[in-house]
UniProtKB/TrEMBL annotation:
Similarity comment: Belongs to the glutamate-gated ion channel (TC 1.A.10.1) family.
Keywords, comma-separated and alphabetical: Cell membrane, Disulfide bond, Glycoprotein, Ion channel, Ion transport, Ligand-gated ion channel, Lipoprotein, Membrane, Palmitate, Phosphoprotein, Postsynaptic cell membrane, Receptor, Signal, Synapse, Transmembrane, Transmembrane helix, Transport
Record domain Ionotropic glutamate receptor L-glutamate and glycine-binding: where: 385-450
GO biological process, one term: cell surface receptor signaling pathway
Name recorded for this polypeptide: Glutamate receptor
Source species: Sander lucioperca
Function: Receptor for glutamate that functions as a ligand-gated ion channel in the central nervous system and plays an important role in excitatory synaptic transmission. L-glutamate acts as an excitatory neurotransmitter at many synapses in the central nervous system.
Domain Ionotropic glutamate receptor C-terminal: residue ranges: 375-749
Transmembrane spans: 502-524, 584-606, 774-796
Residue numbers marked as site, Crucial to convey clamshell closure to channel opening: 613
Chief subcellular location: membrane
Length: 850
């Protein structure tokens, strides 16, 4: 108190004058905000003071008012105003009842919670409750003045949780500034400072409170300010206050009550001037009066001092200082304040004449004036390819240490919006989720909510729960949840892979069609007279005519096979019915062979990887392959909140799986996929999946389509002035194609696994022997079968000739072997036997004609 009064005396020394300097009190309280006790009042009175300046609380107020009333000494106080007509009490602090009720009516509240401190008295609460009864307001009054210090934080959190359960999101805080600060810290901790909540701070030092942590949360915060810092008198005093040296005035506070003590000297000066003008003489010696005397002897001139104080009319730091006949402030003005993202803003004022007058109903939230002189804190997360440390990062400082998609994007945004920025890696390495128990946000979302950063440029997914506490720009990248698995080994082509272009069923149908066409051709040839013709041959000396049909069953099979193989045959149907059969068979073989040839190239030159998982359905219906997500992020939240049966089934599995299938970072998830030998699938955003697929060792792949559709957005605190310019910058970059260029740069141009589509499950390659091995096997098998049949025919014919020629089987085989090697068995190169002579002229009509 001593330092504050000395500063005030020094500031007002020209106004106080020499007369007042001689009257200044030499005895004072030690602590500024400590209430006076009865002993302190008695001590000051015994020293012969003209008036006492100090504080009271609920416990000491009755004692102080009693002493002052009995001893006729004026007590000037900045403590909470008292009800009733108290003599010798001069109240420097204006009553807040009128401004508070007017503000409640302005916001049209009809249901709210009222948190009060019983140490301040219950006068304001009583007026609010009386008004509520008249206007049918629903008020929940809660006393927060009796909470123990060691348990107050827990009690505040429990209190606000109860209010949340009752849907009470409008709260009035009628407490001293220190307690308001403690309450607001817990409000921030449990996430009750976001959009949808509204707080009114019912004291007169709105600007004095530290609200920097809550101003970006999105909640509405209103209050009152008695000191107008735009007043020249206040500005001059404020400059002098800031220039004070710490050594000369250690521990000088700047709390709510500071302006009131500084007005004490000028109030006393005006009172003594009044007495001087009234020519009232007053003297007082230090040993004059004893408060402990029985009966107590009042000071005879105390009434004159009280009357003089009530006649004071002077301008101080708290505006017009004037008292009514009961010692209460009158004709004062209070500024109405609201907290915006750029700090406390005056929206109007209140006085006894005009009541509440709103001068500015809205503040341009998107005004970026002065932004070029401010360094914007950009929170982000180390996640390739969005933000990465350079290989030689130690050689650089600040933003130059990082590279990546979001680093380039942040530079483009800053260039379009015209501000300086500093990249800040989020401390906990998380994107942002709210704890189910404490309701506290972590990660980048938490840094925006709690005012630690101005903007988040990162792969931050736009979700409903995040949109409730922060603002997002238009998406700068579209994506969805996808499945990452370890790339399976390439399937080795089978021996008969040349059959793959057509399904097994088709091959079987072709075989049956071949047999069926051959039989039909045989039958129509037998029944059609046009397929029969007469041939002449000599049987010894007799000439014989015999009707023949070329389409026996074997020739029919041979004709069908030749047509199917596109090789043709020496014989053709003569009848119309036979030609119809041949025509439709040719058409059939044309389509089948063309289709086979078209597919053959693709099947033989494409390497296939057989994936055990092709979709989310495949994951959900099996248990051999585990699957999980990032432990804190939008992907996990998607499954947790999903009402779709498939995703709900997957979530039930993931949350109960042992060991846990959740990972702390994406890098950990990718590593788990690579080391799992195909037994773990990781669910993540498709963009990250595509990027990792392009990185060495190129052993992961994306399977199936996206499970949902969403986007990455640039986040700002609720109501931030950066929201609109950032949003416009994103749209402009999208229209100019800059966003696509950035993605191609960091995904594919810097890829390590080949072309953009090299990660697909099929890749064209040169034809290898293994692809056509079956064809060679069939060729070798056919040749072997032909030689076996030839051997059987050779033996059969040799045995028949041995019987006819009446020779041994061995001789017959030697003759046949000689014929096969030399082409003859006799000296003249011919084999002359009765059988051969008889058979030679008629050889043609006995063999196949094709």
């Amino acid at each position: 108190m001593h330092d504050i009064l000395n500063i005030a005396y020094s500031h007002y020394q020209k106004d106080i004058g020499q007369f007042m300097k001689s009257m200044c009190a030499k005895h004072h309280a030690t602590h500024l905000n400590k209430p006076l006790s009865s002993a302190s009042v008695c001590s000051q009175f015994s020293r012969g003071v003209y008036a006492i300046f100090g504080f009271y609380d609920k416990k000491s107020v009755n004692t102080i008012t009693s002493f002052c009333g009995t001893l006729h000494v004026s007590f000037i106080t900045p403590s909470f105003p008292l009800d009733g007509n108290q003599q010798f009490i001069i109240q420097m602090r204006p009553d807040i009842k009128g401004p508070l009720l007017s503000l409640i009516e302005y916001y049209k509240w009809d249901k709210f919670a009222y948190l009060y401190d019983s140490d301040r008295g219950l006068t304001t609460l009583q007026v609010v409750l009386d008004t509520a009864a008249e206007r049918k307001w629903q008020v929940t009054a809660i006393n927060v003045g009796n909470l123990k210090d060691e348990k107050k934080d827990e009690a505040y959190r429990s209190l606000f949780q109860d209010l949340e359960n009752k849907k009470e999101r409008r709260v009035i805080l009628d407490c001293e500034q220190d307690k308001v600060k403690d309450i607001m810290e817990q409000v921030i901790t449990i996430g009750r400072h976001v959009k949808g909540y509204h707080y009114i701070i019912a004291n007169l030092g709105f600007i004095d409170g530290d609200l920097s942590k809550i101003q970006y949360g999105g909640a509405n915060v209103s209050g009152f300010q008695i000191v107008d810092f735009e007043d020249p008198l206040v500005s001059k005093f404020d400059q002098r206050w800031e220039a004070l040296e710490e050594k000369e005035y250690p521990g000088i506070p700047t709390s709510l009550t500071t302006p009131f003590p500084t007005s004490f000297p000028i109030v006393m000066t005006e009172a003594f001037r009044y007495l001087h003008k009234q020519q009232i003489e007053f003297t007082r010696r230090a040993n004059n009066g004893d408060c402990l005397a029985n009966p107590a002897v009042p000071w005879a001139q105390g009434v004159e001092i009280e009357r003089a104080l009530k006649q004071v009319r002077v301008e101080g730091l708290t505006g017009n200082i004037q008292f009514d006949q009961h010692g209460k402030r009158v004709n004062y003005s209070v500024n109405i304040m609201e907290l915006k993202t750029n700090g406390p803003v005056k929206i109007g004022y209140w006085n006894e004449v005009d009541r509440m007058a709103v001068t500015k109903s809205d503040v341009f939230a998107n005004d970026t004036t002065g932004m070029e002189n401010k360094t914007v804190i950009v929170t982000t997360i180390l996640e390739a390819p969005y933000v990465m440390l350079k290989k030689n990062a130690d050689l650089f400082v600040d933003n130059e240490r990082y590279e990546g998609y979001c680093v380039d994007l942040a530079a483009e945004i800053a260039k379009h919006c015209g501000f300086k920025y500093q990249l800040k890696i989020v401390s906990d390495g998380k994107y942002g989720a709210r704890d189910a128990e404490t309701k506290i946000w972590n990660g980048m979302v938490g840094e925006l909510v709690y005012g630690k950063a101005d903007i988040a440029v990162a792969p931050l997914t736009i979700t409903l729960v995040r949109e409730e506490v922060i603002d997002f720009s238009k998406p700068f990248m579209s994506l969805g949840i996808s499945i990452m698995i370890k790339k399976p080994q390439k399937s080795k082509p089978g021996v008969f892979s040349f059959l793959d272009p057509l399904a097994y069923e088709i091959w079987m149908c072709i075989v049956f069609a071949y047999i069926g066409v051959s039989v039909v051709l045989f039958l129509v040839s037998r029944f059609s007279p046009y397929e029969w013709h007469t041939e002449e041959y000599e049987d010894g000396q007799i000439q014989t005519n015999e009707s023949t049909n070329e389409f026996g069953i074997f020739n029919s099979l041979w004709f069908s096979l030749g047509a199917f193989m596109r090789q043709g045959c020496d014989i053709s149907p003569r009848s119309l019915s036979g030609r119809i059969v041949g025509g439709v068979w040719w058409f059939f073989t044309l389509i089948i062979i063309s289709s086979y040839t078209a597919n053959l190239a693709a099947f033989l030159t494409v390497e296939r990887m057989v994936s055990p998982i092709e979709s989310a359905e495949d994951l959900a219906k099996q248990t051999e392959i585990a699957y999980g997500t990032l432990d804190s992020g939008s992907t996990k939240e998607f499954f947790r909140r999903s009402k779709i049966a498939l995703f709900d089934k997957m979530w039930t599995y993931m949350r109960s799986a042992e060991p846990s299938v959740f990972v702390k970072t994406t890098a950990e998830g990718v590593l788990r996929v690579r080391k799992s030998k195909g037994k773990y699938a990781y669910l993540l955003e498709s963009t990250m999946n595509e990027y990792i697929e392009q990185r060495k060792p190129c052993d992961t792949m994306k399977v199936g389509g996206n499970l949902d559709s969403k986007g990455y957005g640039i986040a700002t605190p609720k109501g931030s002035s950066l929201r609109t310019p950032v949003n416009l910058a994103v749209l402009k970059l999208s229209e100019q194609g800059v966003l696509d260029k950035l993605k191609n740069k960091w995904w594919y141009d810097k890829g390590e696994c080949g072309a953009k589509d090299s990660g697909s499950k099929e890749k064209t390659s040169a034809l290898s022997l293994s692809n056509v091995a079956g064809v060679f096997y069939i060729l070798v098998g056919g040749l072997g079968l032909a030689m076996l049949v030839a051997l059987i025919e050779f033996c059969y014919k040799s045995r028949a000739e041995a019987k006819r020629m009446k020779m041994t089987f061995g001789d017959a085989m030697r003759n046949k072997a000689r014929l096969s090697v030399t082409g003859s068995t006799g000296e003249n190169g011919r084999v002359m036997t009765p059988d051969s002579i008889f058979l030679m002229p008629n050889t043609l009509h006995m063999g196949l004609r094709c």
